[in-house]
Amino acid sequence: MSYAGTLSLVLVAAYGLSSLVLSFLLAGLWRVWLERKPLTSRCLLALRMMPTAGAVFLTLFIVLPAFLICEPDRSAEPVGPLLLLTAAVALGGIGAGLRRGARAWGAAAALLRHCGAVGQRCGMAQPHVDIIEVPEGMVAVVGAWRPRILAAAGVLAALSPEEFREVIGHESAHISARDNLKLLLLIACPDMLAWTSAGDALIARWRAEAELEADALSTGPDRRRRIALASALIKVARLSVPKRPPGELSMAIVADDVEVRVRRLLAPLPPAPHGLPLESTSPILTAACALLIAVAAVPLYGVVHECIEVLVALGR
């Protein structure tokens, strides 16, 4: 096989192996520790993206330079079946992630096309809301790139104008936070964590935290607005059990989350935190740690290259 072909297989296989190790490491940490920790949606998003982002980082900044520096002979060489099998499994995982993302995107696009044909605009709230004639009590932000707010006509009839405005304010908070785009990334993560129960639990926990944070962002400390939103949530939950969910790529009112959200809205507000939040420094800390790891790995390029050679030659 040519040098470029061997390098491509090595990089794909390195990504797959790194993703596998990081996925099972995170799944173990989630089960024994992280599952019981209070985490924000931003932390949960970072945790779920860690296997994919970590595997990409290790592949591009450790495996790739180690191979280029320690492999001066760029002639063609045969590769063993282990490298081919590892690369094939990794490509399968990447393809499965892309399929999940494409399926969610397609379902959301189909729903938006359907609602565009039968919906009408409601001008009592900003931004405008598409009112649709469906039997379910549905209010949701649908779509990732250009999300729209959809509301069932039954919801508009059941809620007071103040309650409806608070519900739309909540959905607008999802749009401001780009929650549907984040959800698409979570669904399409091409790593092995997607095949574990911990991966599903992380996404479910992220959705629940994103709902609570959107409640807090839309109502603020205003007690009246919080009560109005809590009342609206109860009314929407009572309308009907959804017979047709709005799809994976949507942030909708789910009956299972209503009790927790209502309790949080009616509870006294916690005191405002003092000092600089840890999350505001996390991107800087992450970049610093990544740079430190990349620099510290330079003396290990020889060891990394030897492992690559074993992977290339095994079974040849």
What does this structure look like?
The protein is an alpha+beta fold. The chain has helices at residues 3-32, 41-70, 81-118, 153-158, 161-176, 179-188, 197-219, 223-239, 255-266, 278-296, 301-313; strands at residues 120-122, 129-132, 139-142, 148-152, 250-252. It has one domain (3-268, 282-313). The chain has a five-stranded mixed β-sheet, sandwiched between helices. Strand 1 (120-122) and strand 2 (129-132) form a beta hairpin. The protein is elongated, with a radius of gyration of 24 Å. The protein starts with a helix and ends with a helix. The model has no long low-confidence stretch (mean pLDDT 88).
Detail the topology: elements first, then pairings.
Elements: H1 3-32, H2 41-70, H3 81-118, E1 120-122, E2 129-132, E3 139-142, E4 148-152, H4 153-158, H5 161-176, H6 179-188, H7 197-219, H8 223-239, E5 250-252, H9 255-266, H10 278-296, H11 301-313
Parallel strand pairs: 2-4
Antiparallel strand pairs: 1-2, 3-4, 3-5
The helix/strand class is alpha+beta
**Radius of gyration, rounded?**
24 Å
> Could you give the order of strands across the largest sheet?
1-2-4-3-5
The end-to-end distance, rounded to whole angstroms, is 12 Å
Largest sheet: 5 strands, mixed
Which ranges are low-confidence, i.e. pLDDT below 50, for 5 or more consecutive residues?
none
Individual helix count: 11
Task: Let me know the average pLDDT.
Answer: 88
The number of strands is 5
Q: Into which percent range does the helicity of residues fall?
A: 55-70%
